[in-house]
What does this fold into?
Amino acid sequence: MAPINTRLPKGMRDFLPHEVLKREYVFGVITDVFQTFGFEPIATPTLEMLDTLLGKSGEEADKLIFHAQHPGGKEALALRYDLTVPLARYVAMHENDLSMPFRRYHIAPVWRGDRPQKGRYREFYQCDVDIVGVASMAADAEIVSLLVAALRRLGFADFTVHINNRKLLNGIGIYAGVPEAQSGDLYRSIDKLDKIGLDGVKKELAASGIADDAIGRMMDLLQYREDGLAALGSVRDQLRGVPIAQEGITEIEQMVDYLDALGVDQFTVDLAMVRGLGYYTGPVYETMITRPDNLGSVTGGGRYDRLIGLFRKESMPTTGSSLGIERIIDLMDLLDLYPAEVTRTVVQVLVSVFEAGTQGASLALANELRAAGIRTEAYMNPKRAIGKQVQYADRKGAQIVAFLGPDEIQAGRVKFKRLRDGHEVEVSRAEAAQAVRALLG
RNA sequence: GUGGCUGUGGUGCAGUGGUUAGCACGUCUGACUGUGGAUCAGAAGGUCGAGGGUUCAAAUCCCUCCAGCCACCCCA
It folds into this structure.
C-alpha cells in the first residue's frame, strides 16, 4: 500500500525539537522585555469574522487573507492576518474590562496567502506590542525604546530603527502636487529609494504618470534624506505652507526628544521609509539589521489613531509595533546568537539500564532526579547495549549519563558521566542530584 | 499574479540515450553480554516529482502539469 504523501501546505513548516527550543528561547526573552516595560499579555482566536479583517490593512492585504470556511458554515470566517486588527476589535469589545491606557503584548501565529521566499512564510509568528489610549509621542518613543531593548537582549548589535511620519509624507505629496489617488504609487516608489536610487524613483514616478514638476519638487526634498535628523530643519522650511507636514515634523522632533530621554540612540530619521499598511496615521518605524542586510526589516510598526474607530463610535489613539520573529530567528542562527544554555534537547540526564532486573532501580533513580528538578529520561530497553545507550544520549545532546548496574545498586551508589569531556564521578544515592548539578556546572 | 533555477533511497549528491541506477552520510544487525562521536563485515531502503511524447532503447531528449528555492509585487 502506497504511503500517504507527506507534503505540507505551501509556506508552512514543521519544527524539530531543537528548533522549537530555540524559538521558545527567543519568545522567552522577548516576553521578558515586554513585561519589564509593563505590558500585559492577551490572546484572541485564530479565526475572526471575515468582515473584521477586510479593508483594514489595504487592498493588497485583503488579497492575502486566508479564508477559513467550515463546509456548512453560514458566516464568512478568516484566519487572522496580523495581530493589530484583532487588537482594535478586542479593545472596542472589552473596553469595560480594560483600564486605559492599555498596554498589551501578543505573541501568536498569523497567516498570509503570500508567495513564500527567504524569511517569508504563510504561517508565522508575530510579536506585537501596543499602547492604546495615549496620543503623546512619548508612547511612540517608548515602543521604539522597547524594540531596541529586545533586540539588544537577543544579542543584536548592528541595527537601526528608521523613523518617519505619515503626516510628513502626506505633506510631501501635497507639496509636490501629487493627486490623492496617486499617493499610493508615490509612497511605494519613495520606499524603494535604497534599492533603485534617486534616478530609479524618478523613473518610477514618471511611469506612474506623475507630473514632471511634481517629481522635481519631490526630488528636491528627498535629497535631504541623507542628512537624517538634520534634514528636518531644511524640510520644515521647504514645506512652510503645508500644515500637515509641519505637524508631522513636530511629532518627529518630540519623539526624538523622548528617545533622548530614554537613552535610545540606535535610530535614524528616514524621509524615504514608508510602511505599506493603510491604517498608519502618524509616526512609523521599522528596524533594519545593518550587518547582514538581506532579510529585510525585523520590526515594523507605527501609530494608527483611527483603526479602533472602525469598531466603535470614537477612536482611540494607538501606537505599536510588531517584531518579525521569523526573521529574527533566521538571523539568530546566521549570527550564532544563541547562548550555550539553549540546547538541542530538554534532557539533562539519561539514566541507562543494564538488564531487565535493574530497570526498576533505574526508574527509581530517574524519579529521585526529577524530584530534585533535574530533567531526566530513563532508558526503556534493557536489552540494548550500554554503549548504544550512551551513543543515543550523546546524539540527542543529553549532557550526562547515569550508570546504575548491579555493582552500584549493591553498594548504594551511582555513577555519572559527563559526555562533553568524559569526566566521571561515583557518589552515594543521597548525593546524586547534587553531583549532577555540579557536573552541569 | 510575473520571471529565473531546481526536482534521483531518510539526507546530501553522481550518473546527459544503451545491460539488474551508483556513492557518501544516516538507519539496522554483528565483531563488542558494564560505558559515546572510531574501525571492520553485512543488511534494509529508489515506480529517478507526475503524466504524456520521441526512440529498438529515456534518470538522460521534447511537451504539459505539480512541487521547492530565489527574485519582482507586497510584506514580518
